[in-house]
Amino acid sequence: MSIRIFILLMFPFSVLAQTQPLTMETAVQQALQQNKGLKSADASIDYYRKLVGTSAELPKTELSLQYGQTNSYVSNDNNYSVSQTIPFPSLFGARKQLNNAQVEKAVWLKASTKNELVYQVKQVYVQLLYLQEVRALIVHQDSLFTNFARSADLRYRTGESRMLEKTAAEGRLNEVRNSLRQNEADIKIYTARLQALLGTTTPVTISESVIPEANMLLSSDSVAVAANPQLQYLKQQINIAEKQQKVFKAAILPDITVGYFNQSFIGNPLNTSGSPLATNSNRFQGFQVGLALPLWMGPLKAKVRAEEKQQQAASLHYDNNVIQLQSQYEQAVQQFIKNRNSLEFYQRTSLPNVELLLKQSEKSYSSGDIGYAEYFLNLEHALAAQQGYLLARNDVKQAELYMAFLAGQP
């Protein structure tokens, strides 16, 4: 049995996972299922939901025993008592509102984490597509400059050109091959980033080969960023500060104390007549009710006032983030328009002439109609146009993804 067959039999699922290419959508879905940051957000939601059950928490019930000379010279009198302190009922409602607000905050934190995760996965995926297209262009450049170097070498050996032409051609070819090595390293870097975002240790590959066209409809900044989950999360912080203030206010109200006691009066009369005497089998019982009042209100009121400032700070933080997001979205819109205009320039003006320029220049150089300087300049012009076109397509798509992220549209 060959090693390959043995591996397929022993680890079929891991092998399939390594070789299954991912589309952008499947990459996003895998990230949503496996990313540890998103799982952490889920755990946080569950944590705060569990805390809702603590809203009606009571202090511990107090049980006590007194034994000895508690009522007379008899040394074996005893007293059993149980007491319970109950916070003022409005405190339970305030706690529940606060805990529910904490759950809502955790939900919006997950939504914000999800929005960020989807954006990062798509951003890295598109960057990989761009790098793959750049690699294809570099390979094409390698072919062109290899032919250029061969022609220059032949012309030099036949005495038709000088060493300068041969040196320039070989130098440019080495630069192209260095660019190819850098490109391969960048692909490995972004593949590792994608793998980390997907929350897997299994090597990943992508199935698409071309950057998708950008087709996002532009909208006003005030409308667009309103749905951003980060803003909803910050707005919930204001709500939490308000609920916390209500908890502190309710804590100022008196606590209610209820209790029960059962005791003996050994050696004491049962009644005012003086007889008969109480024994160990006679039990006397009763109830007690009381209020626990705060004697020093200053610290409790200070908590309420402090929470007012916390609510004010949260509100200002929210307002500042609204302004910043609106500004970022407006900048992203302008960046999108600028990149789209650049892309249209390459599509309508620059690219149509590139292939013709490359073919005519190569033919003219081979026939000796133009020198190496003109041929070299034409090659650089054509290749710069192709590189600019690929970069413009990537920039437009990346700008679209960033706008969707700011608008909370994963």
- Structural class, by secondary structure, is alpha+beta
CATH superfamily of the largest domain: Outer membrane efflux proteins (OEP)
The rounded Rg comes to: 39 Å
Number of strands: 4
| Biggest sheet features | 4 strands, antiparallel
Which regions have little confidence, pLDDT < 50, spanning 5+ residues? 1-18
Helix content: 55-70%
Q: Domains counted in the coordinates: how many?
A: 2
Q: So what's the overall shape?
A: rod-shaped
CATH topology of the largest domain: Outer membrane efflux proteins (OEP)
**Tally of individual helices:** 11
Mean pLDDT, rounded to whole units? 85
Order of helices and strands: HHHHEEHHHHEEHHH
Strand content: 5-15%
CATH architecture of the largest domain: Up-down Bundle
Oligomerization: single chain
N-C termini distance: 48 Å
Please characterize this protein's 3D structure.
This protein is α+β, with helices and mostly antiparallel strands and 410 residues long. The chain folds into two domains: 20-55 and 87-254 and 293-406, Up-down Bundle (Outer membrane efflux proteins (OEP)), CATH 1.20.1600.10; 59-86 and 255-292. 68% of the residues lie in helices and 9% in strands. The chain has helices spanning 3-10, 12-19, 24-34, 36-52, 90-157, 163-197, 221-224, 229-252, 298-350, 354-367, 372-406, and strands spanning 62-68, 77-86, 255-263, 284-292. A four-stranded antiparallel sheet has the order 1-2-3-4, with no helix packed on it. Strand 1 (62-68) and strand 2 form a beta hairpin. The protein starts with a helix and ends with a helix. Mean pLDDT is 85; it is low at 1-18.
